[in-house]
Design brief:
By secondary structure, the chain is an alpha/beta fold. Helices cover 54% and strands 8% of the residues. The N and C termini lie far apart (50 Å).
Length: 253
Amino acid sequence: MNNIEKVTNEIIAFIRNYYQENHLKGAVIGISGGKDSAVVAGLFTKALGSENVVGIWMPCHSKDEDYANAKLIADHFNFELKEFDLTNLYDNYVAQIKGCNIVNDDNLIDANINIKPRLRMSTLYYYAAMLSSLNKGVYIVPGTSNKCELYVGYFTKGGDNISDIQVLADLTVDEVISIGKYIGVPDKVIHKAPDDGLSGKTDEEKLGVKYSEIAEVINSDNPNVSKEVHEKIKKLHLGNLHKFNIATYRKNE
């Protein structure tokens, strides 16, 4: 992306205009320690001022490195970082499910992974409502998904796809990295291999394809990827379209 400064300024203006038009005050952002949430936090602090941005670190059997990165981002962009530990809540939730004796641990793997972002999103909206009341102004929750993730449906329905405003949804991973470098996201974070912080695997390991390959498929009619990779990306894209649309019956009158 050759016009990094232009796109960055457009995003900042987009945020400011949306806030002004809707009489909003602040933003509550889930800070994972990864590049996407770091870039979103950086853009919002530049658009609104760091005093109007609150980051929430929500560990759930998380790595110490992720907290260190989250703290690094908050210190760098000078916004408040609060911690809401979801570990006990998650453990109690899963224990109750297991207590029903319906399934074994192998059947719970995906369900356990997906409940975490749903708990996190509930937490973000709780904080947003609380701060709206405390500070006499509306706080909203920005999304942190990028274009590559969205294209293949790499998000949890009812979890990290829920947000009030999206600023990375039309940017590929490489474009997010470029903007992150431009606004000064620390190198340790911007070059960190993306992972969900939930499964113990990187995003690309879970997907079975590289983000650069997904971007190639998105941006080209004749993508320079193998037939196998192209088919896998196509399958992911088509297989997850249901996440974007709620099937609704309409009466024929």
